[in-house]
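Cross-check.
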Amino acid sequence: MRRQIKHFYEFGPFCLDPNEHRLLRDGQPIPLRPKVFDILLVLIQNHGHLVEKEQLMSSVWTEQFVEEGNINKNISMLRRALGEDDTGHKFIETVPKRGYRFVGDVREVNDHEEIDSVMEASAKSHNLPVAEDRSSDSQETPEYAASAPLTTPSRTQPLKKNWIPFLAVPVLLLAVLVYVNFFRGSRPSLTPTIASIVVLPLQNLSGDPAQEYIVDGMTDALIGDLAKIGALRVISRTSAMHYKGTNKSLPEIARELNVDAVVEGTVQRSGDRVHVRAQLIHAASDSHLWAADYDRDFRDVLGLQSEVARAIAGEIRIKITPAEQRLLVAKRIIARDAIDNYLQGRYFSNRRTEQDMRKAIGYFESAIKADPNYAQPYAGLADCYNQLGTAMIGVLSPLEARRTAETAARKALEIDNEVAEAHTALGYVNYFNWNWATAEEEFKRSIELNPNYASAHSQYAHYLVAQERIDEAVAEINRAQELDPLSLSISSSRGFILENARRYEEAIEQLRRVIAIDPNHYQANWTLGLTYLANGQIDQAIATSDKAVAVSGRAPAALGALGLAYGVAGRKREANQILNELLQLQKQRYVTPMALCFVYIGLGNKDQAFAWLEKGYQERANHIAFSKVSPTVDPLRSDPRFADLLRRTGLDAESR
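Predicted model, tokenized:
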């Protein structure tokens, strides 16, 4: 098969390779933004001729409206890359109010010319004959001596020198081909490879701190849209928000998050209009790859984020599947009040406290009232109610919370079946209701729609560890942490997964790292206390569980873990005090039955432990789902009642 001939443009010390999208100066790569490279290519292909600004716009920005100032900025960057100063432009001439002309001497070459030149130089250096060009109409014919006798050299006769050129030429040709294909092809591409990205919190230029929720919401939306691209690793919101207002340099941030590129920008709202400026920066070189300005009606603000995501994907030349392309297209215009309330709901729900969740629910309900066919607020409601029913927050019974969450999630999917957050919420509802197969389908569908959705990977990891699929669970939680490396919640969840995998030392190390960053992190202290207890480190378990009680405001789940530790340590009086506190607390608020079950396990009262365990089963308490793997309930495993519990929840071998 013949190798495709490559064309190059040489000017001064530079060589432009259109096929590989690279510019070399004296053989060394010069980094250029893709659009800057495209401008240079258009100018060189028309060297010596005026290229109108309109022609540049239509040639370089084929599917995007740009202002004239964008061309000027790129021309300025191009001149700097070519080493021009402000007093004498060596290569590019500006034609005022018209456009630009490339005035440098340009030579177009291809691989065949390179081979010919190398062959000729090699032949001369070896005193070899250089082939002459013979036209087809030449009348010259070679003359042979008709009477010359044929001679056959002896086999022992040395090879005559006049055979050497005929052997050397093929060898030289092979060497040249190796040079052209290998050494030339091994030069690094100038278009940076970008496989991972972080969207830093957009800046609020409105001058009104009350508009901060809009800016954060638009950051969320842009992260969410980019996250739908499977070939791109996108850092999740929690980790990105750590850099809000930071003074760290972009390369430093990129190193901490292990990403190739950074997106940053600004947002300014004025009445019903919103102006967004976004730019893409190659992290290692701190060089701009793309920038654009957008001005839209506020109703189209989420559609605008999809447009920005598509533009970024186009610039970094990432592969987008047809399904992903469909997901990046805004489906409809949303009512202004609905968007405004939805963004405020997202702002509060991301804080993950009981009070903020309740505020978020109010905003999501207002968004639905303003636009009943807007799917995302329903997904937001589902997430909030699922959280209010967890052991950590635990202000609603799991049955009540999940019933409301399921209704909201199904309504979201009825409107739009491609909302990943709603599928994750349904997966959560189903696996805590022990509908194992349905739960896994929902988690897989969510990850298919949004491969970079860290929460989906984290929840799926919990599902997998509950099923005792340990290796898969660890792989999923590791993926979640990779996508959201600064999320203390996901880091604590990794500790929970490792604890239930019986990898106690790893779990302790993981949870200590979280507490080193935030000593008052409730989830990390609660999980670490239980892990210490499972590992036989009773004193550490009591101290850490006591800290969890303090930082949580004496939450029932934390009290249950502390009572368990006191009971195991033989400190019956303290354990019974915790038990009485929980029983009194039951009269004032919802208390998870598992808290009382834990204390009775510590006291060695199996009958009461099973009584509260059964109540937890009836209420679909979260911890029931982990009965197959949890070391906390190990003292109950030998009892036939526990085997019956596993059967009823579909966790025994026969039910799987």
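The chain has 27 helices and 14 strands. The first strand starts at residue 7 and ends at 11. Passed to J.P. for a second look.
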